[in-house]
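Notebook entry, structure prediction.
Reason for the run: the old model in the group folder had no record of what sequence produced it. Starting over properly, with the input documented here first.
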Amino acid sequence: MAEAIPLIGRYSSVNLEAIRTQAAQFVQSGVDAIVIDWTNNCWAPGCDAWEHRSLGIRELINATDLTFGVYQGLRSQDGWEVPRIILLLGLDNGPTTPMQALLDELDYIANAYLMNETAGGLSSFVILEGKPLVLIFDGTGADHSDFTHETFSIRWMASQLQSTPEFAQRGIWSWMDGTIFPLLSMNPNNKSNAEAATLAPAFFAQDGWLNKDLAVGRSGGLTIFIELSSVLSSLYSASVSSPFFLNVCQFNEFAGTPEGPPGTIYADSYSADMSNDLEPTSPWASAYQRPGKVKSGGGYGYRGLNSLGLIRALLADPTAADGSASVFILSPAVGDLSNYTSSAKSINVQWVTTAFNSTGLSLGRSIMTNTSLPISISIDGTVVANVAAPSEPGPQTYVLDVSALDERFPHILTITAFSSSDQHLTRWPLSFDYIDADRGEGVPLVQPVAASAMAWIWLPESQN
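New structure, fully documented this time:
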C-alpha cells in the first residue's frame, strides 16, 4: 500500500496530541468546518442494522467521540475558534446502507453529539437553514428531494459531477470532481443560487489515477489554484447562497488502494504527486512504495496546508492576494525520482510563475495568470543558475547539471522569483517546509518574504 509519513509522525485516530495539532493547523488556515467521513459505516448484508455495526466502525466512532470532546474543550476552555463539524454518512458508495440503518444513525448522532453538552451540543455543528447540517453520500445521484429530517438539514453528495452536471443543478454536492473546472452545486431549495463547490489538490476521473488522460497531479501545488480560479470566476457572475460552502478534498488520506492485478482502479493516493490529500507529510521520509517498483522519495510537505489559508482568504476577499506572485515547480514532481539522464548527469527542471489580480473577475477572467519573472535556482541553499524572464509567460524549462551532487542523498531544489534585480516579495509564501502562520506573523504575513518554491531532488542512486 502506498503510504506517506505525516509530519507529526505516525499516529492513531485517538491520539490526543494529533487531534489538537490538526485542530491548530485548521485554525491557522482559517478552516471553518471539517467533514468527518462515515460513508462506509454500515453496508448490507454485513450490517443489516445500525446496532450491528462492526468493531472497526465502532473504533472510528470512538475517535469521532473524542474529536467532538477535544474540539469542545479547545472552544470553551482555551478560546480557540475551532472548525464546526459536519458528519458525512453513506447511503450508496458502491455497497448500500439499509435505509432504516441510516435513519437510526441519524438518531445516534442526535443523542451522542447534538444532545450532549460534553461534545459541544449544537455549538459543534455547522448550522444550515436553522438546523445542524448532515451530508449523505449517494453516488447514484438518486432523487431524494422527499427525504427530510426533523432534527437535521440534509444535503446529498456524489462525485465526478463533470460527468453528471444535472446532479449539481439539483443541489447535490461533490466529494471530488475530475476536472480543473469544478461545477457549482445549486441550493436545492432555490435552484438559481449556488451553494457549494469542491476543490482538490489533485484529482482523477474514470479509471482512477492510472488513466493518464484524465488524472491530474499536484503540479507543485498549482492544480488546486487553477480550480479555485475557475470557481471564483463562476461565483462572480452567479447568485450565491449564504453560507456558501467551498469543500476541499481531503485530509488524513495519505494511504491508497493496495497494489492489485492489472486493471485495478487506484483511488485516494497512488503516489505523492497523484494524491488528493492535504495533510502535511514528510518530504524526506521515503515511504511511497509499490511491490516490484522503485521506491520514490518523500511527501508533499506543508504547501498544501498553507494553500488552504490563501484559498480561504480569496473566497472571502478576491483582492486578498492582488500583486502577489507565486512559484510552482512542475518538474521534478513531488516525491518522484528526478528525470535523471545519467550520461549527461542532468535533470530537466520546469516551473511557472503566476500573479494574482482580481480586477478581471468582472470580465470573467481568471484571478491568477502566468507571468514572466527572472528566477534563480538553488541547490541546498547555493545559487547554481540564474534564468532571465521569458518573453512569453508560461512554463519554463532549464537543464540542470547535477554532476557535482552526492548521489547518495536527496537535495533541496529552490526556485526564487525576482523583479528586476530584487527578490519578488509575497505575503503568501505557500511554504513547503514551514507552516506559514508559525512564522509568528499570521497569514498573510506582515513582513513579506521571497516568492519561491521548493522541491527535493531524488536521484536514482539515493534509493539504493
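Summary: The longest strand covers residues 346-356.
The old model has been moved to the deprecated folder.
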